[in-house]
Design brief:
heterodimer; A: alpha+beta; six-stranded antiparallel sheet; four-stranded antiparallel sheet; 21 helices; 12 strands; B: alpha/beta; Glutaredoxin; two-stranded antiparallel ribbon; 18% strand
């Protein structure tokens, strides 16, 4: 029964999506509002039908309806409820279904935020989003149909892959990444719409940038969660292994991050339009490539689903989108030519945006080349090789370092040209901070060159970020007087998007410091303990108290109870375990981690023979891993703050009259054509480093301090 | 139309799609088998009871089938009857079959053999040194060693009985 309703729902979704795509594209080409209305209605039906399909699948999984093909593959009577729920994305067919459902949700979101604006672009953009939807729904309806009926009905199923059952993060990591991946469709469609119309208005480029923030935030958080999952599940004590699928999630993140920055120049100065569009299209293409990597079985990875029939179909889709993107870009890029004004000299923020963008592009290229090199090599020479950490570290570390450095330099520079003396003044404090960090490290005996260099530039970037966050408030305080605290709060509220950007920067700094410290001082030791025996590793004293066993419905765990102390301080018990799943021959280790800001103690079971009173452990001690996860949370918070719809745009969407901004001298939203975009009236003050800060009170959150 | 952009795009798109398309039909999990064709590493190990020891050097002149297994390993149990049948068939013809217990205790190994039957001795590999020498990544892995002491083939996962028969026939 579920099988039939499910298939019907998917077919309805496919039909709605196809009609909607055609209507949207027709509406874009012919400027037909009637067609656009159709496209919007179809988007809603598409989303509704996909929601029904996903709901049915969840119901089938929860009720163990093994007559549904997908449930017979990943369901199991012994699975606890949470595993039954997350089984939806534990295997190929379910994950594609989930994917199409998320696309439906995004299509509704896109319909909502373009509902009374951007008539020029909205139809094209929705048409393209739905066209992408057609492909995924087609997969669900055909090649990867999870609703196929099974006869005779099996009595039980194997349950999902044990690696996926092993950690609660499986609940959040895949959906977060999917929300990032799938969401890239929206800015892609909007960018393609701009290219199709041959023009990008500043308000549309702002809309694209906002639409990019949402999937970008999910992608960032998803990548960090993935690292966390790998750290907590795989038992080798690392969080990043340059696995092809990890790279697949990093690649679109790199280009999307570059786009978020270049789009600021596009929005503000109408520059770098062609380049920004290239980054935008690439981000989507790389998500498709990434999906292809996981789903095609061409790459070897912990993530890949083996032997799937959808590889070739996916490759055809990838090729179509690639060709479409290249043709579109080639046909329209000349129409987007920037106005006369070129980039400013080397002392300007513009130049550093460009440098940063080029670094991101170089890093993207390096990672892409390393990831596909085994395939290229095999195609050319017939030999199978693998490209490992040394290659990625050799190029990735310097480029990553350069990015943190640019993050410390760029924001301190004014937009436009600046005198040398201004630059020197602006950098006195940040450079001082960097020097202080280096001296501090050397005094405390921390002398590894790369980590210390990362700490130094991170210190600089942190100071610059804090300075830039405080600048609007300080400027306000100087002009208006009153309480400093109040001015800082008001200044921050008025410049929300800018503040959010620097919060994300601070999150990135935390991650950079965490990565540098944890990879710089990693202590790994394997040891064997008898019951009751005590040993010391680093500053810790470990005592093996004995073994325990825990039986759950879906697995049996052998647990080693290890008592941990540091000096005289009792730290309690850590219980690394080995989980045995009936469907997997090999037991899976589940490490126990004590994670505090200073240092992680990571215990992973190597061997535990029941009844033998002996345990073999791998002990990993790494400083500051905690900061990576913490940085991820800060980045997520910053992104939410940046992407939150502003009161003004919400009001505009609701069709309500927009009340004029309260602050004196603020200009209405939208720059006059021909002027540098986003120029707003200034509440000028001679700010510290000779810069003139001008603060807009426009609640569009596009306010910026400008020189 | 901007021909430069088009050319640059084509330069990236065509090779990328070609390479990805060529990736089909290959098993990315197949490990490059560095051991095949090499001289089999020496070992000197004793059996589960500690009664008798075996040395590869002393077995020179005979084909050897070396099977790494463990009692906790499901695929090992799966291939076990195949191994027994092949051993019963080829041991009389001079092929030496040896099991090596991997990551397991002698007690468990004995219990497994008692339960599932056995046709050839299983050796203990304290510290897993031989497994390391042979580059064993997991169990089961089975090495077919020629009378000259060369590794002819390595089965990763359960043995394929037909291929095994073919390999042994070729050496006899």
């Amino acid at each position: 029964m579920i099988s039939i309703i499910g298939r019907t729902a998917v077919l309805v979704a496919l039909a709605a999506c196809t009609v909607g795509a055609i209507a949207g594209i027709y509406g874009g080409a012919r400027r037909s509002t009637e067609a656009l209305r159709w496209a919007r209605a179809m988007a809603l039906i598409f989303a509704g039908a996909m929601t029904l399909a996903v709901g049915l699948m969840e119901y089938a999984l929860l009720t163990h309806d093994f007559s549904v093909h997908y449930v017979s593959q990943v369901g199991s009577l012994s699975s606890p409820t949470w595993i039954a729920i997350v089984s939806l994305w534990s295997s190929l067919e379910g994950s594609i279904l989930f994917w199409a459902f998320i696309l439906g949700v995004y299509a509704v979101w896109q319909t909502w935020f373009t509902r009374s604006r951007y008539p020029e672009y909205a139809s094209w953009a929705l048409g393209i989003t739905l066209a992408v939807g057609v492909f995924f729904t087609f997969l669900v309806a055909g090649t990867a149909n999870p609703f196929t009926a099974v006869s005779p009905v099996p009595l039980d199923g194997p349950g999902p892959n044990p690696l996926l059952q092993n950690h609660i993060l499986m609940v959040v990591h895949p959906p977060t990444l999917y929300l990032g991946y799938v969401g890239m469709t929206v800015p892609f469609a909007m960018g393609a719409a701009a290219l199709l119309t041959g023009r990008i208005s500043p308000s549309w480029s702002r809309a694209i940038r906002n639409a990019m923030l949402v999937p970008w935030g999910f992608l960032s958080f998803g990548i960090i969660l993935g690292g966390w999952w790998s750290y907590d599940v795989l038992g080798w004590g690392g969080y990043w292994a340059w696995d092809p699928v990890e790279n697949a999630s990093l690649l679109p993140w790199l280009t999307a991050t570059a786009f978020l920055h270049s789009a600021m120049l596009m929005e503000r100065k109408e520059q770098l339009k062609g380049w920004s569009m290239t980054l935008l299209l690439s981000s989507f293409l790389l998500t498709i490539l990434g999906t292809f990597m996981t789903r095609s079985g061409v790459f070897n990875s912990v993530h890949s689903f083996t032997q799937t029939p959808i590889g070739p179909v996916f490759l055809v889709f990838l090729a179509i989108v690639l060709i479409f993107s290249v043709m579109l870009l080639a046909a329209r890029v000349d129409k987007l030519t920037p106005p006369e004004e070129g980039l400013n000299g080397p002392n300007s923020r513009d130049t550093f945006f460009l440098a940063q963008n080029l670094t991101f592009a170089a890093l993207t290229f390096t990672v892409l080349l390393g990831t596909t090199w085994p395939l290229i090599n095999e195609a050319v020479t017939g030999d199978r090789i693998s490209v490992g950490e040394p290659y990625f570290n050799r190029w990735g570390i310097p480029l990553g370092f350069l990015l943190v450095f640019l993050m410390g330099v760029g924001p301190a520079l004014p937009w436009g040209r600046a005198a040398g003396s201004t630059v020197v003044k602006r950098f006195l404090v940040p450079l001082g901070a960097a020097v202080l960090v280096v001296v501090g490290c050397l005094v405390f005996g921390v002398d590894k060159p790369w980590p210390v260099a990362v700490f130094a530039v991170s210190g600089m970037a942190l100071v610059v970020s804090v300075q830039e966050m405080a600048a609007p408030g300080l400027a306000r305080w100087r002009t208006k007087g009153g309480s400093l605290g109040r001015a800082l709060v008001e200044g921050s509220v008025m410049t929300r998007r800018r503040q959010a950007g620097y919060i994300v920067h601070i999150g990135v700094i935390c991650v950079a410091v965490g990565v540098a410290a944890s990879s710089g001082w990693r202590l790994v030791k394997e040891l064997t303990l008898m019951e009751g025996q005590t040993t010391t590793v680093g500053a810790y004293t470990l005592t093996y108290l004995g073994e325990a066993t825990q039986k759950d419905s879906h697995r049996t765990s052998s647990i080693a109870r290890i008592h941990v102390a540091r000096g005289d301080e009792e730290l309690g018990e850590l219980d690394p375990r080995m989980n045995v799943y009936p469907t997997m021959g090999r037991p899976l280790p589940s490490p126990a981690v004590r994670s505090v800001p200073g240092e992680d103690l990571y215990l992973s079971l190597v061997q535990l023979e029941p009844g033998s009173k002996v345990v073999s452990l791998q002990v990993v001690i790494q400083p500051m891993v905690w900061w990576i996860w913490f940085g991820g949370v800060i980045m997520a918070a910053g992104t939410i703050l940046a992407a939150w719809p502003s009161r003004r745009s919400a009001a505009a969407l609701a069709g309500a009259p927009v009340s004029p901004p309260r602050a004196p001298g603020a200009a209405p939203q939208g720059p006059a054509p021909g002027t540098a975009a986003g120029v707003t009236a200034s509440a000028t003050a001679g700010a510290t480093a000779g810069a003139t800060a001008s603060v807009t009170a426009s609640a569009t959150a596009s306010a910026e301090v400008r020189s | 139309m901007n021909w430069k952009v088009l050319a640059a795009g084509a330069l990236i798109v065509i090779p990328l799609v070609t390479v990805l398309a060529m990736g089909f039909g290959q098993d990315p999990r197949a490990l490059p088998n560095v051991m095949e064709g090499r001289t089999a590493p020496q070992f000197h190990l004793s059996d589960l009871d500690g009664m008798q020891s075996y040395d590869l050097a002393e077995l020179a002149g005979k084909p050897v089938v070396l099977n790494f297994w463990a009692s906790w390993c499901v695929p090992c149990a799966q291939e076990h009857p195949w191994l027994i049948r092949t051993a019963q068939q080829y041991e009389p013809r001079g092929v030496v079959f040896l099991g090596v217990l991997y990551g397991d205790e002698a007690v468990n190994g004995k219990a497994f053999l008692k339960r599932n039957g056995h046709a050839f001795p299983t050796l203990l590999d304290p510290g897993g040194h031989s497994a390391l020498d042979y580059g064993v990544a997991g169990v089961p892995e089975t090495f077919v060693i020629s009378p000259q002491g060369q590794i002819v083939h390595k089965f990763v996962g359960p043995i394929e009985p037909d291929l095994m028969t073919e390999l042994l026939e070729r050496m006899l």
